[in-house]
Write a structure and sequence with these properties.
12 strands; 4-stranded antiparallel beta sheet; Rossmann fold; globular; 2 domains
């Protein structure tokens, strides 16, 4: 059984856990791929589920130290290294701040380099008051929800709002109810709905996603290594394939890996630990 990216049931997917031997081959392939032209290679990384384990509460997420160390080493060795995430840039920098690291936050609505000024899509900025009202409505709705929906967490991000239901007792029921509420708000406000791992997000109706973010980040590069784990990464997968240059697209294994993501990736690597080993060995090979 599998979970798709269209908002279906949350279930264990059918992909086998990546064995150590399989990871070894993927890592060998990744080292070889980046090593062919390191100065022309963009390394684009998701955060949650890729550099950090998925956790019950979004505030508790932390990048694996080994991945952070590898990123620091990689920045001067490859064309560019970027985080591509649904989190705001300020949130990402509070978890991993590295000189020279590129940040693309909120599905490309925000961007920054290192500790530099955060740029915001002006079209999205106009939606800040509406998003604030939807965030307040979500908080009020969650507070008044039935007891079986206890555990819903509302994450206001300024330019979007995410409803997490990971800590509810019945994920299938919570998904149905949360998705219905989000669709209703989308119909009322014009915002878009994005489905993630045990969460539903409302974002402004701007033509921006991880695909458009990837388009900007790979411009001028000769190759791209992209690593992600969720439905929001699929537009980036597609953008990189449309680009038509050398690419290696990896999905990150977990019990919640959406079937669509695993099927569209070139390979599936064994969790954030596997990602850390890959990044570390790429850096080691280039030092």
């Amino acid at each position: 059984m599998s979970r798709s990216c269209c908002g279906g049931r949350e279930e264990l997917n059918g992909f086998a856990l990546s064995a150590e031997g399989n990871d070894a081959e993927i890592i060998r392939r990744g080292v070889e791929f980046v090593g062919r032209n390191p100065s022309g290679c963009a390394v684009l990384l998701d955060f949650d589920g890729t550099l950090a384990h998925v956790v019950d509460h979004p505030d508790d997420a932390a990048a694996l130290p080994e991945s952070v160390e590898a990123i620091v080493r990689l920045i001067p060795l490859v064309g560019r290294v970027a985080l591509v995430s649904g989190r705001p840039v300020a949130d990402l920098r509070s978890r991993i701040e590295v000189d020279g690291l590129l940040y693309s936050g909120l599905y490309g609505l925000e961007h920054a380099i290192g500790a530099g000024e955060i740029g915001v899509d002006p079209k999205a900025a106009a939606w800040i008051p509406e998003v604030a009202m939807v965030t307040e409505a979500a908080i009020e709705w969650a507070a008044s929800a039935d007891a079986e929906l206890d555990g819903i967490v509302i994450e206001g991000k300024g330019l979007s709002v995410t409803l997490h239901y990971r800590m509810t007792a019945d994920h299938a029921l919570a998904h149905e109810v949360v998705a219905d509420w989000a669709r209703g708000e989308a119909a009322r406000t014009g915002m878009r709905v994005i489905f993630g791992k045990l969460n539903v997000e409302l974002v402004p109706p701007i033509d921006s996603d991880k695909g458009s973010a990837a388009d900007e980040l790979i411009a001028g590069m000769d190759s791209c290594l992209y690593i992600g784990d969720d439905c929001g990464d699929l537009p980036a997968f597609d953008a990189i394939r449309r680009w038509g240059r050398d690419s290696l697209v990896l999905a990150v294994q977990s019990s919640e890996l959406p079937a669509d993501v695993g099927e569209k990736a070139d390979a599936i690597i064994g969790g954030p630990q596997g990602v850390a080993r890959l990044l570390g060995q790429v850096a080691e090979s280039l030092d």
